[in-house]
Task: structure prediction
Amino acid sequence: MTTTFVARWQRGVVRPQRIHVQETQDGLPRVANALGKIVNLAVCRAWTTGELLDPAEHTTFERCEFCVQILNDLRLVQGADHG
Result:
């Protein structure tokens, strides 16, 4: 069985110029209550706005280095020979 991972990038709440990869659980965005406001969570645990962005179209944003590393690790695991 092959699982395809799709990275959904979102703007950070604390640092709006940094974008993060959305975390999901059972295909739904993970959310949390942050100081009385519902926010989405990124794979690096940052709070995000829920606004989906395409990094190729938004080149002025900085990609979170932790999210990029997690994506690279997932791609390595997916490409590994488990036989």
The mean pLDDT is 84. The two ends are 12 Å apart (CA to CA). The CA atoms of residues 36 and 47 lie 13 Å apart. Helices lie at 65-79.
